[in-house]
Amino acid sequence: MKIILLGGPACGKGVQAKKICEKYNLVHISTGELLRDKIKQNTALSEKLKETISSGNLVADNIICELVKEKISTCQKDGYLLDGFPRTMMQANLYSEFDKPDIVILLETDKNLALSRVKSRRVCLNCKASLKVDELKNKHCPYCSGSVGTRIDDTAEVFEKRYEIYKMQSAPLIKYYGDLGLLVKIENNHSIEETFNEIIKSLSKLKELK
Ligand SMILES: [Zn+2]
């Protein structure tokens, strides 16, 4: 199964992606993670990527596409889920040259709700667990006791910029996958479990059709 998960910044995509991948044995391909991994490698490219991301801008389509293609080629499970890709029509076109999705899920989240998620988001610098500020009893990770910090791109300013870019870029993607009959819209303003159940319903229908 090949799934594309679409949604704005901090729409809760990451959490749902993880749950879907566990249930259906899929490789979770997150462009955010792919980029963060590249940045850590300390090359000329990583310095450039770091600069681009921390100023709230987006990385070039062809670079993102290469990273995704490379990851898909090593995929050993029952398929994959693309999280944060394609973000632009250019990326969708580049992707269509080497693969196509079975379904495109659009998570629709209220903007203010998404912003409040950004403000409360933390990450463990050691084990990379995603954490929420109100769940932390002290400044250490509850899983491994590592130090906790914010992601370099988690500020309200960066969020606003990203949100505007997302709205502009996702409109043609939504139309494109809608016209292909692949798009399913899911409202994501309730609990994680409610949203996940809606997603499972859509995916079960898809499996029955196959
Ligand atoms: Zn940790």
Structure description:
The chain has 210 residues and is α/β, with parallel strands linked by helices. It has one domain (2-111, 155-209): 3-Layer(aba) Sandwich (Rossmann fold), CATH 3.40.50.300. Helix content is 50%, strand content 16%. The protein contains eight helices and eight strands. Helix 1 (13-24) crosses helix 8 (192-209), helix 4 (61-73) runs parallel beside helix 5 (89-96) and helix 6 crosses helix 7 (156-179). The radius of gyration is 17 Å and the shape is globular. The mean pLDDT is 90. The structure holds zinc ion. The site of zinc ion has 8 residues, from loops.
Question: Short description, anyone?
Answer:
Helices cover 50% and strands 16% of the residues.
| Total domain modules | 1
* Secondary structure category: alpha/beta
By CATH's scheme, which homologous superfamily applies?
A: P-loop containing nucleotide triphosphate hydrolases
Kindly identify the CATH topology.
Rossmann fold
Side by side, the strands of the main sheet go: 2-3-1-4-8
Bound molecules: zinc ion
N- to C-terminal distance: 10 Å
Percentage of residues in helical conformation: 40-55%
Give me the number of helical elements.
8
Question: Mean of the pLDDT scores?
Answer: 90
CATH top-level class: Alpha Beta
Order of helices and strands: EHEHHHEHEHEEEHEH
Low-confidence stretches: none
Q: From the 3D coordinates, which CATH architecture would you assign?
A: 3-Layer(aba) Sandwich
Form type:
globular
Percentage of β-strand residues = 15-25%
* Number of strand elements: 8
As a whole number of angstroms, the C-alpha radius of gyration is: 17 Å
Q: Could you describe the largest sheet, including whether it forms a barrel?
A: 5 strands, parallel
